[in-house]
Design brief:
hydrolase activity, alpha+beta, Nucleoside Triphosphate Pyrophosphohydrolase, Arc Repressor Mutant, subunit A, 239 residues, NUDIX_hydrolase-like_dom_sf
Length: 239
């Protein structure tokens, strides 16, 4: 049974009993989008999987707490994250009124050293039973990410400095959960302004050499820009 937490402000009104931060860290794994989870060791919900968050310290901003908890619980650090949403339903935590500020990040799954960490990657469309309202938080994060993949350079850290269109298409498909028609994908990405041709080619086997591209800006930027989503072949689960 979790210990109850209560607080009042200086005017005598009920106040949040605590504030925590939740990093929602996503990555393509084996062609599908996954989320990083840890198993809870204490009540409430001991033994269940959850996002690797925790309570803020008095000298931290929420984004600093998200980074600290991510490193403490998974060994992954220095992740670029943007604020996702604040979750403040008084009933979301059985210990009491404890809002959470969630942050969203996208990384290369290889950053997690599974042999040195208890954290694990789970497909976003096949999650285990999760603690608190973390399933809803993850769903919001996936929706935000998929809504941005064609409007910002969020995939910059998942591709080499110079890459081919097939390489880019595999990453975009894993994030978006859909399969793109190759020629429409190439045309759409070229016209998006996110990438530019390098003028170089690479020979990967029989056939014509593949053109190499690069991101127009390699600084992570989740801000939106105008582009058009290309035609898809079929939709995969959960897209």
């Amino acid at each position: 049974m979790a210990e109850q937490m209560h607080a009042v402000n200086s005017a005598g009104f009920a106040a949040p009993a605590g504030l925590n931060a939740l990093p929602v860290v996503l990555a393509p794994v084996a062609g599908t989008l996954h989320v990083l989870l840890v198993r809870r060791e204490e009540e409430p919900h001991a033994g269940m999987w959850s996002l690797p968050g925790g309570f803020m310290s008095g000298d931290e901003r929420p984004e600093e707490t998200a980074q600290r908890k991510l490193t403490e619980k998974t060994g992954v650090g220095a992740v670029y994250m943007e604020q996702l949403q604040t979750y403040g339903d008084p009933a979301r935590d059985p210990r009491g009124w404890i809002p959470s500020v969630a942050y969203l990040g996208l990384i290369d799954a290889a950053v997690l050293r599974e042999e040195e960490s208890a954290a694990r990657w789970f497909p976003v469309d096949a999650l285990p039973r999760l603690a608190f309202d973390h399933a809803a938080v993850i769903a919001d994060g996936v929706e935000r990410l998929r809504g941005k993949v064609w409007w910002s350079n969020i995939a910059v850290g998942l591709l080499p400095e110079r890459f081919t269109m097939p390489q880019a298409r595999r990453v975009f498909e894993a994030i978006s959960g859909v399969t793109y028609e190759p020629s429409n994908f190439r045309r759409g990405l070229e016209q998006s302004g996110l990438v530019r041709p390098t003028g170089r080619v690479v020979k990967n086997g029989p056939g014509r050499p593949a053109a190499l591209y690069e991101f127009a800006d390699r600084q992570p930027a989740w801000s939106t820009r105008r582009s058009r989503v290309p035609a898809t072949v079929r939709t995969r689960g959960g897209a």
